Amino acid sequence: MSDNAIEISGLRKTYAATGRSAAKDALKGIDLTIPRGSIFGLLGPNGAGKSTLINILAGLVLKTEGTVKIWGFDQDVNARQSRASIGIMPQEPNLDPFFTPRGSLDVQAGLYGVPRSQRRTDEILDLIGLSDKADAYARSLSGGMRRRLLLGKALVHSPQILVLDEPTAGVDIELRNLLWQNVRQLNEQGMTIILTTHYLEEAEAMCDEIAIINHGEMIVRDTTANLLGTLDQKTLVITPDADHPDLPALPDGVTGEKRANGTLAFTYQSSKTPAGQIIDTVRNAGVTIRDVTSEQPDLEDVFLSLTSSR
Ligand SMILES: Nc1ncnc2c1ncn2[C@@H]1O[C@H](COP(=O)(O)OP(=O)(O)OP(=O)(O)O)[C@@H](O)[C@H]1O
Fold it and tell me: Could you give a GO molecular-function term held by this entry (predicted)?
């Protein structure tokens, strides 16, 4: 049995041409494995193909080519088992306004064939913080409560893998924290989590591994730590003791700027220039240094450097 939660190979999706628009290659041959037990981030600019990929995993979009194995089950061979292994929290709250949270969870459990005796409705209501709204009509729920209910619905059949499509887009900080708390708790219990997010600092904080797709192709897949290490660029910020009008002449490969707050910022490649050399250069130019801080590249820098040139 493989250690991967998801194994995708040669995955292609071409949306057929319609009256007004030409055919669109949304996925152009994706190979991707996602290890069991991880929190995996799927990132990419708008239109990159993330939703198409997730919808294929969910069985909502038919792939054009390639194989998809979910928890070891090939979608084409063991459709039922592969579907039972994954739960999807969609982007849009598509809830029936006349169902209560309890009713929605029950219907969903029924759709997945979970026998009544094995339903975890109360436990899920508790997890998503909706126990006291269990019997209120969905139309009376706030936007945040609806989002939480979507998470609950994705969990009714106790899937091994949970996919969250932009779970925190447009939600307030309180709900965002609650959702992340839920996600961490589920992951600690052994669930594999796959999420798409536009908030890169969130992916940086939450995900063990990340894949970035762009124009239907996977451009990188690595651990979050390695990705952050790929940008060798750092910035050293020096606060001078007194205002200093000019930047000193700098070693090759180092660029400097004077920021509006009077600090001097020097960007350099840490593999080529030691920080001490920059500090010495500044000091030798007659600047008395009051403070030194360093700025590391974040995931946003990595993302932009990988996607903007293509
Ligand atoms: N049903 C469809 N018919 C035709 N083209 C589609 C369809 N769904 C998506 N596309 C196109 O396929 C490409 C990938 O879209 P997709 O929604 O998968 O991207 P995404 O990365 O999820 O973007 P976003 O972050 O904006 O949701 C886009 O060019 C989109 O216009």
Answer: ATP binding
Atom of ligand 1 nearest to the CA of 91: 27
Ligand 1 atom nearest 48 alpha carbon = 21
Please give the model's pTM, rounded to 2 decimal places. 0.80
Domains in the chain and their CATH numbers? Answer: 4-228 (3.40.50.300), 231-307 (3.30.70)
**Centroid of ligand 1 to alpha carbon of 27 (angstroms):** 10
Within 8 A by CB and 6+ apart from 60, the residues are: none
List the residue whose alpha carbon is closest to atom 31 of ligand 1. Answer: 47
Residue nearest to atom 5 of ligand 1 (CA): 15
Q: Which DSSP letter does residue 270 get?
A: T
Sign of the torsion formed by the C-alpha atoms of 272, 277, 279 and 281: negative
Distance 117 CA to ligand 1 centre (A): 40
CB-based pocket (< 6 A), ligand 1: 15, 24, 26, 44, 46-52
Residues of the chain with pLDDT under 50: none
Q: How far apart are CA 114 and CA 184, in angstroms?
A: 25
Q: Which atom of ligand 1 is nearest to the CA of 216?
A: 14
Q: Report the complex ipTM.
A: 0.96
pLDDT at 306: 73
Q: What pLDDT does 9 receive? A: 97
Ramachandran assignment for 124, one of left (phi > 0), alpha (psi -120 to 50 degrees), beta (any other): alpha
The position carrying tokens 């219907």 is: 107
